[in-house]
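Hey,
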Amino acid sequence: MIKNLNDINEINLFLNKFDTQVSDINDPFKKYIGYEINGEIISFLNYSLIYDRIEIEYIYTKDEYRNQGIASILLNYLVELGQKIDCLNITLEVRLSNESAIKFYEKNGFKKVSTRKNYYKEEDGILMLRELV
């Protein structure tokens, strides 16, 4: 089941995996959608809506639920949402070394656009884009 995440406690469970601070959750431009099984959030996606573009900050799925298509479900939900509100595209950055994430995004219609030198601490980032129109 997909739901919008508004409860800070649900999101807080996952924050230690990322360089995210509680103040980020209160940012009105940042949105969260999650996937729930039996009342437990097992995956979520964080994104920002910037004019006519969506920027994904991260997707997280608990280890025991990975490779079951859940992240793709969240991503497809976001694509449908973007199309409904007339967004032009979705962008994201991914670590150059994160080959499995790059393959996941390519499988889901994203293309590599450019490399951002030292985007992460001592590592390049790959800018990826999926057109919605």
